[in-house]
C-alpha cells in the first residue's frame, strides 16, 4: 500500500512491561477515522481497491496479538504514511539494549 521504492521503517524497543514493534511506510496513510476499522473482518479501505485481498490479514494479526495478551493499533505518521504497532506484554531484553 505504499509506492515502490518507498522506505519502510521497522523498529523495536522494550519497556519494563512490554516489547513494542513498529512498522511504518511513507504511503498515503489511512483515511481519517479508519485507524481502528482496518482491523475489522472484511474491511477494505477505498485506497486498497486496486490491491487483491479479502480484508482478513489485519484481523488475523489482531487475533494472534490479543491471544498473547498484546495490543495492535495503527496511526498516521506526521510526515506521511501509516504506522502499525504491536505491543506484547512481558519484560524483554533486546540485544544491544
Q: Would you kindly provide a written description of the structure presented here, covering whatever features stand out?
A:
This protein has 97 residues and is an alpha+beta fold. It contains one helix and four strands, in the order ββαββ. The longest helix has 11 residues. The chain is globular.
Helix content estimate: 10-25%
Main β-sheet description: 4 strands, antiparallel
Compute the number of helices. Answer: 1
Write down how many β-strands occur, each being a DSSP E stretch of 2 or more residues.
4
Spatial sequence of strands, sheet with the most strands? 1-2-4-3
What is the global morphology?
A: globular
Structure, briefly:
With 97 residues, the protein is α+β, with helices and mostly antiparallel strands.
List the helices and strands and how they pair.
Elements: E1 9-14, E2 18-24, H1 57-67, E3 71-76, E4 82-89
Antiparallel strand pairs: 1-2, 2-4, 3-4
Keywords:
single chain; 97 residues; alpha+beta; four-stranded antiparallel β-sheet; 1 helix; 4 strands; globular
Amino acid at each position: 500500500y505504499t509506492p515502490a521504492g518507498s522506505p519502510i521503517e521497522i523498529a523495536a524497543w522494550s519497556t519494563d512491561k512490554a516489547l513494542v514493534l513498529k512498522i511504518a511506510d511513507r504511503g498515503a496513510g489511512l483515511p481519517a477515522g479508519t485507524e481502528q476499522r482496518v482491523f475489522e473482518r472484511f474491511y477494505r479501505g477505498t485506497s486498497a481497491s486496486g490491491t487483491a485481498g479479502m480484508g482478513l490479514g489485519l484481523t488475523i494479526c489482531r487475533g494472534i496479538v490479543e491471544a498473547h495478551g498484546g495490543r495492535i493499533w495503527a496511526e498516521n505518521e506526521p510526515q506521511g504514511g501509516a504506522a502499525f504497532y504491536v505491543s506484547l506484554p512481558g519484560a524483554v531484553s533486546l540485544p544491544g539494549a
